[in-house]
TrEMBL record:
Protein name as catalogued: Negative regulator of flagellin synthesis
Coiled coil: none
Keywords associated with the record: Bacterial flagellum biogenesis, Cell projection, Cilium, Flagellum, Repressor, Transcription, Transcription regulation
Membership in a protein family: Belongs to the FlgM family.
Occurrences of domain Anti-sigma-28 factor FlgM C-terminal (ranges): 31-83
Naturally occurring in which organism (per UniProt): Thermosipho africanus (strain TCF52B)
Pfam families tied to this protein: FlgM (PF04316)
Amino acid sequence: MEIKKIGGYGYIQGINSKNAEKINRKKNGKDKVDFSATLEIKKLLYESKNIPEVREKLVNELKQAIENGTFKIDPEKIAKAILGG
């Protein structure tokens, strides 16, 4: 039984060498690299580390409402949320 490779490293290299210039060059023939998306992702990751995992204020308000008996359950709202409506 003979197993032939489909694609593989050579295939990827062929794509890179044939199409890299088409992908990376603008009409004026100059290379362009855009790192703005990478910088935005780094900024968002940094900011996300400063957000607390638990919204303590909301949790405390809900605990207080449950203890006081003022927390009301809306079964229709729950059913709609479960059913995706």
